Amino acid sequence: MASVTVESIGNYRMLNSSNGHAWLGDEPEGVGDGLGPDPYELLLSALGSCTAMTVMMYARRKGWRLEDVRVSAAHERIHAKDCEDCEEKEGQIDQLSLKIEFDGDLDDEQRKRLLEIAARCPVRRTLTSSPRVVDRD
Question: Which domain holds residue 17?
Answer without folding.
Answer: 1-37
